[in-house]
Amino acid sequence: MRGCLPRATFWGNNMNRSIIAILRGVTPREIEDMADAIIAAGIDKIEVPLNSPDPLESIALLAKGFGDRALVGAGTVLEVAQVDAVAGVGGKLIVSPNCDTDVIVHTAKLGLESWPGVFTPTEAFAALKAGATGLKLFPGNMAGPGGLKAVRAVLPKDSKVYAVGGAGPENFGEWIAAGADGFGIGSAIYKVGMSVEDVRQRAEAIVVAYDEAYA
User: Fold this and answer.
1) Residues facing 93 on adjacent strands
2) pLDDT at 13
3) Mean pLDDT per 10-residue run, the chain (215 residues)?
4) What pLDDT is recorded for position 65?
5) Maximum distance among all alpha carbons in the chain?
6) Cβ 90 vs Cβ 115: under 8 Å
7) Which of 32, 47, 113, 123 is catalytic?
8) CA distances (Å), origin 16, targets 71, 127, 156, 207
9) Per DSSP, what are the bridge partners of residue 72?
10) Identified catalytic residue from 30, 32, 45, 136
11) Which of 22, 68, 129, 139 has an alpha carbon within 20 to 30 A of 117's alpha carbon?
């Protein structure tokens, strides 16, 4: 299916934006076209939550077709065995809604990126101590930029925090001012039933807003 679309290309330094596209509910049948549109727009990190249909098949297709151009992997990873399953199909990104230190330690051991969900300073420090690559502030809409700013004041300076939930193109600037290093974007970029063109347009709008927020 991907052959009917213009092939995604890198835009030099414009890639590597700190945005993870969360494709909850995506199917293997559509994953390649969706990924191609998202990468072409300028987003090169893609997460397939494990509660999507046949997620490992989708991740395998992503790893095979886009692994040289994007960081791909799984979300809603809750168990160590799931980390192994994702690694087994070529995924290199492990994102969780919670802070499970066993999952974090195992992910780091395999050399994969670990982004556990945290909400409190206690969870944040436990995740970092276990070897997390960065922190997923979730749900972001409950903490708000004010909550992030308060937690950021006590975190190590080099720790990375992505806001997920309640963060999007309408408020990137507010979150960045509070100390967000990046974002996980779900329904603002993809919902079940969307066309590839819908996703392309949403991804492009998100990239424009992100770049403007950092201008």
Assistant:
1) 73, 113
2) 37
3) 39 68 98 98 98 98 97 98 98 98 98 98 98 98 97 96 96 97 98 98 98 94
4) 98
5) 49
6) no
7) 47
8) 9, 24, 23, 11
9) 46
10) 136
11) 68
Query: Domain 16-214: what homologous superfamily?
Result: Aldolase class I (3.20.20.70)
Terminus-to-terminus CA distance in the chain, angstroms?
A: 36
pTM score, whole prediction: 0.92
| Residue 49 pLDDT | 98
- Give me the residue spans of the domains in the chain: 16-214
- Residue 181: half-sphere exposure toward Cβ, Cα within 13 Å: 15
Residue 191 a catalytic site member: no
Structure tokens at 41: 């727009």
Phi-psi region of 25 (alpha: psi -120 to 50; beta: other; left: phi over 0): left
Give the single-character DSSP code of 194.
Answer: -
What pLDDT shows up at residue 167? 95
Long-range (24+ apart) CB contacts under 8 A made by 121-125 are 121/151, 121/154, 121/155, 123/99, 124/99, 124/151, 124/155, 124/159, 125/155
